[in-house]
Specification:
Layout: H1 6-9, H2 13-54, H3 59-86, E1 93-96, H4 97-114, E2 117-123, E3 128-131, H5 133-153, E4 159-167, E5 171-178, H6 208-218, E6 222-227, E7 232-239
Parallel strand pairs: 2-4
Antiparallel strand pairs: 1-3, 4-5, 5-7, 6-7
Length: 246
């Protein structure tokens, strides 16, 4: 499979500028991570010393301490995830498919919670994949955001997205399913084409699923779209530790 040249194959000058901005954001996020790490570590130590000095078994105090430590851990992990995701120089690596899904959920967690979307992750069988973890995360995040937009567009009250991970002897499988009513049968064969969008008022560029398809191709993998009983379902089929095209 030939390597993909984003600039020559389908990116306009404005898209190129967007990628350059993402690279700058990656550098900025790395700097922020570096600046935050030490204060967060120091704050953890301060809280630990406070706990020791208090010598209290008061449930409210202990609960507040544990909650504060959870917040620090969350902030530290979130900055790491954003920094990794936005770094354009991330090298190919072997990684857990379930870990990539969890990291993707972590990035969109705030927005999903704000918009009342519940995300469920079910891991029936994890697998090791070889490639650019942050590129696969980009695909997963795009699928999650598309599902969120569909749920909002259809004005679904109980908004749910389910990610399921499974595997067999040759392949790993990741599906993203929502309860937003599904994809129109008249357009389902068009959705991976460039500049095709069903989003109203020009809210979509029509490149998200196309770019996702190109990334999945680099993993020597497949992505397909269909409808379940409740909504749209996207399935990614990846080879175990498959080589990718650079």
């Amino acid at each position: 499979m030939p390597s993909l040249n984003l600039d020559e194959n389908f990116l306009s000058s404005s898209d190129g500028m967007r990628i350059a901005k993402l690279a700058m954001m990656g550098e900025m996020m790395a700097n922020i991570t570096h600046q935050w790490k030490q204060p967060l570590n120091e704050l953890s130590l301060v809280l630990y010393k406070m706990k020791k000095l208090a010598r209290s078994e008061d449930n409210e105090f202990i609960g507040s301490y544990e909650r504060a430590m959870q917040i620090i851990k969350y902030m530290s992990e979130t900055t790491d995830e954003f920094s990794s995701f936005l770094n354009p120089n991330t090298l190919s690596q072997e990684f857990s498919l379930a870990d990539a899904a969890r990291a993707s959920i972590q990035i969109v967690k705030g927005v999903m919670k704000k918009e009342g979307v519940h995300i469920e992750l079910e891991v029936l069988g994890d697998s090791k994949i070889y490639g650019h973890k942050n590129r696969l995360m980009q695909v997963i995040i795009n699928l999650l955001n598309n599902a969120k937009d569909a749920l909002n567009l259809q004005k679904i009250e109980d908004k749910n997205i389910k990610i399921k991970i499974d595997s067999d002897e040759k392949f790993a499988y990741l599906s993203v399913e929502d309860n937003g009513g599904g994809i129109d049968k008249n357009v389902i064969d068009e959705i991976f084409k460039p500049y095709f969008t069903t989003k109203e008022d020009a809210k979509g560029t029509g490149l998200g699923l196309y770019m996702s398809k190109q990334i999945i191709d680099q993993f020597n993998a497949e992505i397909t779209a269909g409808n379940s009983d409740n909504g749209a379902c996207f399935l990614i089929k990846l080879p175990h530790k498959g080589e990718i095209d650079e």
